[in-house]
């Protein structure tokens, strides 16, 4: 009997959309990429050359794509500004959704997605925090779960991109919600994973600089930032983000517990090569997040597919995306105002620290 | 227009055969796994459950499989003893062949495969030395090609397996030609790659011990061995193989040139995790070659496919497999006799060293 | 002509005093340890057995020791509470002083030492921040000075001790000024070194937890803390301190510039040994700061000696010790109050962030 | 009561002699450097400026120095060619001797030193294999002794110098006995340490090339060499030496046992600094053996001193130096003749391998 495959479509064929399309078309045995949508002419041309020959129907209209016969699921990988709208439309069409992070840079808009999903509990709706699918982070999580480091207390986590001298990313700054919300959201998600998803924020502070790109100040953004989140119950997460790393992608996470510590990617390296020259010993770093997390995305597509086909719970709660966004936005606010933000144990903003 | 896919079959569904089947079925966009053969009942059952649902026709007779309509290529991944026979049969049927290493443990038998292939120059026949497709080895090769280390002079390379306490591998010892021919053949191939495929052997010596498994002596084999191959023109390759590594797979290669050195996998590690406990800082190693080379095999299947479809030259000359086997067998002989073997510049065995 | 040696005395023969005594007696060619003082009976006994035979006169009264004939310099390595008093007494006796950090946990008291020294500009008075004498930190500083990483912008630095399960350190908590002032003072000093000693603080925040030792709360202290110091001119230093590391001493510093990054001790290790076992590959960490910085202290004693003998400027300005202490105390205050502290460009405390 | 110090003299004030003089004068609390000898004018000038002021009497005649009143011990650090003669003279004067390696490049001459020492069992006579005093090698030895890796079976060890483009070392090639005897003698000594000092050689083979310095062929030497020593009882040591490393000193040793492996200096590094630039992450290597082993020499001088003063057994048997030299000379012979050398279980040379 032939295997039943999940019929899935990808919306958006930019950098990440192309990769999702590739993964669902070619590296997800139980999925069949049946459709793809993009409003962009260049991307449409690419899709006709690279997806159509594999039997993928190409759409330039999202709503039309949602009507594709037999379609069961949609990957939302368009511009962040339309994630929420497209996710909600898909949900309303009774389609499973894998949405790129964030659901929206707007908290209320994100909450609408969560509520739309809640209204259709038979659907799998997942916001793709790719690091959750990375083999090293999972190994770390298993070891922590097994008690290797005692009770986790401190998380240090950073998202650091290789400096793109073209400043390509600056144009996006206004749209992506700022580096604390856009970049550190991964680290926040990891911190919640390792410190407990029920951790309640006690205070938030953040500082940032424009080391290389002063023009970011026009968008209320920085190119290097440090944020600290204190949780009730004696837990701390502190974060660093940078757009200006010289050597490559450096996404490092430390989880410090009462009896040990686990470091993920403390020694970033692109591959297994070390070069010895009169200058010393040199290793290279991944160029970007894809160089570091390519196979995490493959895991993501396969696991999402399995969860839908076998009606399993997806490995990330959708609501976590909301919480992580909230904390990211608080860091962004703390950075922008210079203020330290305080919260009571019920999550309400208060004026003074609770000692 | 639909993409044209290479119709390929896999012969043998043991450990490696299953993986080739998976890669061609699910991770090689331009290939279609149309058939699979195994004479083994357990493997047949597995194939019916795991391949048939994806449209793969299962055969228990190799010759029958070769007649599969539209079949264009065969992966030979059966027991080593039938590699040559099956490869030749496929070639005779005008099928392209990707044959697992070695072509045969018998030099003459291997040569027959090479000759069969030579007789059909329109066919792509490749012996799969997986490390040639590994990203790190390729990076090393590019850097060496670019002159980063000057002229390569010395290669140190080792193939070291995690100790399988079941001694599972002992039963194979008699069949696989011994550890110098079976394990170090990869290292020999790498040495030829880096030192020049036209390198002519000047002398060969080898020693070995049975550190843990004295029963290997019954098969003229050892569980830890060291071999040295001297080439004309002032080049040396030295090799280590071990069946008894405690921590995991450790396949390391150093290429030393007149102006620098490149090390591949000098610090083996399974993933990006370091664990800090009162014992110190610990990282884990890959369990086996698959943990280290999984994606090299994916590259291999994709590149072989592309070479066939686009009639490109395969990245490894088939004749190299013969040369590497020859050197491996010489090391095995040097180990078994205790003698150092000498060769003149034309490759003829001589009695005394040529100074 | 016989070499002229600096006649020096060590006050205090506790853990650090013993080491200074050893270094000045045996590893500082141009110094002669002529006297040592301790009020402690056990230490006196030790001194009579271990120093007296090398010609060192032992005193149980500090003032008496200061009168030792020919004495030129004193190392103050007593309990922190008497550093300032003893340093000032020595200065008043016209003796050069190498004072263990901190001058005092009290800012005003520390300032008195600085002023006493200022009044005698012919004396060398140095507060021993040992990391300034460490070969790796110096290499980092040279590379930064040479422009290797562009303009330094961010410093991350941590002082992390191996967990002493006896809780020996808790008794000291009340005396040492708290972990931000006591431990991170080294990191603050490094941050000022790398970001510029004229850096002006804009804001300070800090959070801490008692992960393992809740009893520290009685002293207004924590066992793991994170602090962030923002400087005018777009520079940030962020700090971590821990009393509860499982594996050993982990004092790590990162300096991130506009064109690169330097990491000191990102991979802590005790020595050059890696052990491969079925558990993986393990390396050990230094047990304590001595295991990491032993030779920095040797450099310190030799350079201090040279500065006195040759009337050179000591490599650390005494006033920096005051600035570092100030910042440490601000972090401590920020931790204790939960507040973020703000400063104007003239160093005056203000109520609100300056944007 | 004043401490009793060992009155010691250093013969030879070349590169290594100067360092021994410094260590005994300034870093060996229980020793007093009372005299130094060198026949070299430049070195005499240096000694008058740098040793005499510390009370060291300078001699230009070795025999005169041996008569120095109260002298108890001599460090022989002159040119290799006179090691044996000077050591024997000192022994005959009833002086303890610390002799730089090798005793002589001539086996018989070395044996005479051993015999001279044997005739005076109350004297401490030690040949300085510095790595035996290195903290990492000692840690390795302790772990091996403790059974961490099971029974040691294979040793891989290399001595690799940074390439001195001046070719300074070539002039020494004729004098030092060749790279297998001169450089790998350290590795042979380590192999005997880890595999058992009673290990009996079964076969020896070696190959070498002149990768960069063909003029070495005039001296029967090479600039990169590989040697393999097989021992009875199923043990192997294999060695690499190089004069042409690009990045710095790389002295690495692996000890592989039946249940694990220990690597010393698998990741050579000069210090704790890693530099991140667009080129990648770079660390530097020690420039030379002093950069790697400085403190091993300090341990050596202190331990030798203690052994003399307290009449303890020195940590290295003198006879081992003879055995290590013998093996080094055999490797040199095997390299020069191209032959594999065979030995019976009694150490007698035989014509054919013993299987």
3D structure, described in words:
The model of chain A has no long low-confidence stretch (mean pLDDT 96). In chain A, a hairpin with a 2-residue loop joins strand 13 and strand 14. The longest helix of chain A has 21 residues, at 289-309. Chain A has an 8-stranded mixed beta sheet with strand order 12-11-7-10-9-8-15-16, with helices on one face. A 6-stranded parallel beta sheet of chain A has the order 3-2-1-4-5-6. A two-stranded antiparallel ribbon of chain A has the order 13-14. Chain A contains 11 helices and 16 strands. The first copy, chain A, is globular and about 60 Å long. The first copy, chain A, folds into 2 domains: 6-128, Rossmann fold; 132-294 and 324-350, 2-Layer Sandwich (Dihydrodipicolinate Reductase, domain 2). Chain A has 355 residues and is of the alpha/beta class. The interface between A and C is large, with 43 and 43 residues. Strand 12 of chain A pairs antiparallel with strand 13 of chain B.
